Amino acid sequence: MKVVSYNLRKHRAIAELAALDEQYSPDVLCLQEVETAGLAEHVGRLQLAHSTTGNRLGLAVYFRPDRYEFEVVQSFALKKSLHDHLLRPAHERLVGVRLRDLEADREFVVASFHAAPLTALNSLRRHQIHAALAELQGIGPGLPILMVGDYNYPVFKDNLAEKVREAGYELSLSDSRTYTRYKFFRGHFDLATSVGFDIERVETLPRGSSDHLPILVDARYAAATESEVEAAIGA
């Protein structure tokens, strides 16, 4: 399964999505900072599963309807940062979708995530990540989960990876940095967190008009059963 995640930088990279579908043929496309009002129902061969409605610049998930069957979707509000309270509240920072793989006859959960901005503390973003993963378990208890997006986590990723592993998940970085706009905050901002999947590769794709570079996650189902996934995350 191939999943592309892309922060569109206030919607300015929206015109690049059809080319991404044409060139990389993703099964799922997860977006951040997209203007959700009037969002197209289809991008290339992909169909819109859901987009947030609580804020203008939100999240969206597209999927391939010829390969996957849409089952459940839900968006979630997570703990707000001071930036959210004082400026433009981001009411929803997570969209999770449960899909059925028609070829493999398996269900899984995929999600688009956008953490609090750099003005917040890493501790808040860790709280948001932990809460997001717990919410996704509610969509599909015991199912494989893949959460991708803009984690806004420029430093101390080893600590983040350790916390994620303690919760039963794996954190995956791409093969090169995904954000280069600010001199002191360059690095891997766009990440993947998973359980029940083997992440074979995370590739940073060429730069477009956004300050984030899109990532392509290549994942396959792990051999773990649903009960083993539940045990891994302490369910």
From TrEMBL:
This is Endonuclease/exonuclease/phosphatase domain-containing protein. It comes from the Bacteria. InterPro entries: Endo/exonu/phosph_ase_sf, Endo/exonuclease/phosphatase. Residues 5-190 form the Endonuclease/exonuclease/phosphatase domain. It holds the Pfam family Exo_endo_phos. Coiled coil: none annotated. The lineage of its organism: Bacteria, Bacillati, Actinomycetota, Actinomycetes, Micrococcales.
